[in-house]
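Q: I'm writing up a methods section and want to include an example of the input and output format. Could you take the sequence below and give the corresponding predicted structure tokens, formatted cleanly so I can copy it straight into the document?
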Amino acid sequence: MFLFDPIFLLFMAPAFILVMLAQARVRSTFQRWSQVRNYTNMQGAEAAKHLLLESGLPEVGLETARGRLTDHYDPRTKTLRLSAGVANSSSVAALAIAAHEIGHALQDKHGYTPLRLRAALIPAVNIGSSLGWILIFLGILLRSAFGTQLAWIGVGMFALGAVFAFATLPVEINASAKARQLLSNAGLIYSAEERQGVNAVLNAAAWTYVAALAAALSQLLYYALLVMGMGGRRRS
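A: Here is the clean output for your methods example:
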């Protein structure tokens, strides 16, 4: 996968650093606000059940997910899965994460277009991430017009990953906006400190998606320039 190409490392290093910083920020922010108990003393799972009913989503199931910060909403099964660290915690961080995932459930209920686009892209992105670099590598080996075309198809497959990352941003930003509104309307956050904590957790999570988009665009640019260079070498 061209990992030993110094040009590849040059392209990807800033994005890799951004990803690591974003992940570190999520962990530290979650850790900080996991120590602050919410005013209602509700655990994440209790808050989730309350918010699901308040949002008119009684059909959404609630399960425990393995791992840390593995919380997600599964639109295929209409199931909200919360990690034990969120489900069993009465912290401000737990409220923020549970409400954010319910935001995704609301998007699913209302047919939010970016969410549908992202879901539709998943099969193609999974194939493209596995097959794209193979086509580029084969195209380089063939050193022909057909090889260049093959390589550009591979670049196109990687472009789907960038489109997916781009579509993810409005999905996550909108879910966070819904989370803030849900918690406020339901009366689950009272103080300025709680609002600060909810915003901090949600904003930290958003940066991970910005970092993912930067990584996808950096990778796409590298492969596009690589294939453009192939065409130049072939003509000369």
